[in-house]
Amino acid sequence: MSHDIARTDTDVLISGGGPVGLCLALLLAEQQIHVTVIEQEAEVIRDLRASTFHPPTLDMLEPLGVTQRLIAQGLPCPSWQIRLHPGGERAVFDLSVLKDDTRHPYRLQCEQWKLSEALLEKLKGSRHADVRFAATVVSASDRDERVAVEIEAGGAREQLRARYVVGCDGARSTVRQCMGLPFEGLTYPETTLLVTTQFPFEDHLEGLSNVSYCWKANGNFSLLKVPGRWRVSVYPDENTPIEDQMTPDALNSSLQDIVARDAVYEIAEQRPYRVHMRMVPQYRKGRMFLAGDAAHLNTPAGGMGLNGGIHDAFELASALTDVLRNAAPDTRLDAYDARRRPIARDDILAQADSNRARMRERDPERRRALLRDLQATTQDRDKLRAYLRRSSMIDGLARAAAIQI
Predict the structure, then answer these.
(1) What's the confidence (pLDDT) of residue 243?
(2) Any residues with CB less than 8 A from the CB of 404 and at least 6 apart, and which?
(3) Own/partner pairs for 385-389, CB < 8 Å, 24+ apart?
(4) How far is the C-alpha of 281 from the C-alpha of 295, rounded, in Å?
(5) Where are the beta strands (DSSP E) in 100-218?
(6) Residue 155 CB neighbour total at 10 angstroms
(7) What domains lie within the chain, and their CATH numbers?
(8) Does the pLDDT of residue 402 top 70, yes or no?
(9) Which of 259, 215, 256 shows the shortest CA–CA distance to 356?
(10) Given pLDDT bands bounded at 50, 70 and 90, which one contains residue 218?
(11) How many Å apart are CA 232 and CA 275, to the nearest integer?
């Protein structure tokens, strides 16, 4: 084993066993680096979170042996669209133009918990990984040569020593707090309502893609299909209390706005969520790191949050592997921040904010002008490819890889 057992209990301790933490853990374990994952939930939670995988993410996950499993459990989405409702005028973005840029020229609609379960299954078979559920990181303190971590499980406290600690523990990251880093940015004023229903919107809205962002009178909504159901994001009136908008009658009314029908909509799941645009000023502080939502938060418009977190995991795994296995100097770890933070700031957060602003446009003439511009892009192959390379996160990864340190 690569760590000095007299001084440390694990090479890398990861706080957070979501898809980003588990991906990082498997990448390290496959390099025979001992990793410990601490996750507060008792198991992988099958809840309403991210559901879009972009082409380069599918490429990156392939060597881990999980991409084919995701494809089998998901819905390939060869195009996505922005449309006016109820008229149906639309700009359709055909991802097949990326066929020379990726092995997966489509978006995959697949709930993120399916990735977590696939990664966890592989980790359970590794002698280099220890995944502990129903456990919480209470504190972490960088002691120069190692990080002292206190965890709590079943009411008991335990001290662990790790060579490095990574916070993959989300928006309320304990590791980020222990690093003393602010989470700079803003919270958008609106609350988004996410519901799922088995109603076949595709049978009632002509030419609907599996991913469709829609303008309606005085508002907008999005329709994202996953196997067996549609995820509907409704952006309600900011002046109406959220509890009033989450009643069965109000949710049914929101769906009737999309497709009017005599029957009441059957809603399988529902949850409100606030949307943020936040970032830390640095991803590394000594022997402690942040990845995914613990490091950057963005509006889900464009489906880049989960993908950006997975990309973080690959970059950080490469840096840690070089230091722990290949005797690279400690400064190699600085490349993680140098390559990932600018991309989060300039690509992920900026694009997501721009996507949000576009869909919140309320002026009908301005909407039509925006749609005409988008349609012109979709009808010019070179412009379309350039647009999709950026929105599918291919360009950001290429720029990050080119950053030398």
Answers:
(1) 86
(2) none
(3) 385/97, 385/98, 385/101, 387/93, 388/93, 388/95, 388/97, 388/98, 389/98, 389/101
(4) 9
(5) 107-109, 129-132, 135-142, 147-153, 156-167, 184-197, 211-216
(6) 5
(7) 10-185+277-398 (3.50.50.60)
(8) yes
(9) 215
(10) confident
(11) 16
